[in-house]
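User: Structure with magnesium ion, tokens only please.
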Amino acid sequence: MTSPCFAEKPDIPATLSLEELGFDNIYTSLPRGFYSCHQPEPLSGQHLIHFNEAAAECIHLDPAQGERPDFLEMLTTPGQWPGTRPIAMCYAGHQFGQFVPRLGDGRALLLGQVRTACNHRWDLHLKGSGLTLYSRQGDGKAVLRSSIREYLASAALHGLGIPTTLALMLSGSSEEVYRETIETGAMILRLAPSHIRFGTFEYYYYQRRFDDLALLGEFVVDHYFGELRHQPEPYLRLLETVVNSTARLIAQWQSVGFCHGVMNSDNMSIHGLTIDYGPFGFMDQYRSGHVCNHSDHLGRYAFDRQPGIGLFNLGCLAQALLPLLDEVPGQAVEKATEVLETYEPAFNRYRLDRKRAKLGLRTEQEGDEALYDDLLGLMEAGNADFTNTFRWLSEPDPLRKDLPNPLGSSRLSENWLSRYTTRLEGDGADPVVRSQQMKAVNPKYILRNYMAEMAIRAARDDHDFDEIGRLMNLLKNPFDEQPGNHRYAVDSPDWSAGLAVSCSS
Ligand code: AMP
Ligand code: MG
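Assistant:
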């Protein structure tokens, strides 16, 4: 069994019905202390808003299943979907730097794992499905606003080729849910190889339940990292693997101006996936210290701090793995430290690769990083749009000169452009080929906050879900020109700067 990956195109046609999906439910092979059993609670007046065919393909589910009148009923009515065995997983985590000993799925259920004919296993995870043992003071619900944002954002990252959970469907309801104002409840069903988080390991470590920790480690290696099973020190290799995939993920986020709003260790996937979209944000104008979460008063998760926070979270994971790394505590710490020390160079390598690719550089030269960083400095000083500046730079030279220059015409920007031109001349690539390659890494379309907000307002105020469908189509191919969609590729309107996105969801 290999871990599935959204990037792989399944070569088996998507023809299965909900009843024909083969369920495996492997998490329930772990002892009861790892989860609690619950049934989903359907929402009153629930209705399907969108069905994501790209996600359905992964599990070979026939997209026509989304048109079944009983589709939502199957997903949300206790006992209705054969093969599912809904559970809430428990985990802990460092939230804004503070350890919280018990979190867990407070409003989500793992319905089970689908095992596909290509021998891949996918978690089906229903979010917004009601109270569980881990709901604490929460109501077990998710609101339409944040569900739309998660649904669109996961599709956007998927389109950009960045590892993420991916939602199969979005549903709304008429059920009132109380946040700062009265909103309505919603659900998404998301897919991922697993929903195991750094915080899942922390849960057992901090309770000193080292036997359970060992069971979890064994489970993770056996089911998701089978290639490590027969290597010496499999848990150290596991840590190494997660360090590497996390470094790569964060370098990818940074390369498209994506900010995760709540980078707590319970929101970090052991598969290096983007998970738990709350107050995320794609940057409009470049700000190195951009904070996308209005509730993050100290800017802990500011854009330029996210790489360092990645290391903090990996430190939390490493700490929790210590008992599995070596019987002698000092040795375990030494081994973990050595692996953690690989994070920064790995991240820097991935980031520099991205920087060169974004600038269209094939060869490597000493000053490349400074060239990129100076461009960011210019953008910040001139309030230039991050995405549109890189897309403008991706145009081949004579064409670019006819387009408005997002960097303005200051002496500094002229100087930078002439440095860049000289560097490109030394790189020797054909300008048309280079432009194509740059356009394949510098997206034309991202999910700007105002775009999600427009879709939310239409859905909430007018029951109009068309914009969600339009954005889902748009974000599938963010690097393509998409001539009918240029309106989404201009700088964000001024009012979007006033949008505040918080933890409330
Ligand atoms: P999040 O910030 O969405 O990643 O959630 C952090 C923790 O709070 C997780 O354990 C969630 O399951 C839980 N949680 C968030 N919102 C709710 C809610 N409305 N009801 C119950 N639990 C919640
Ligand atoms: Mg979370």
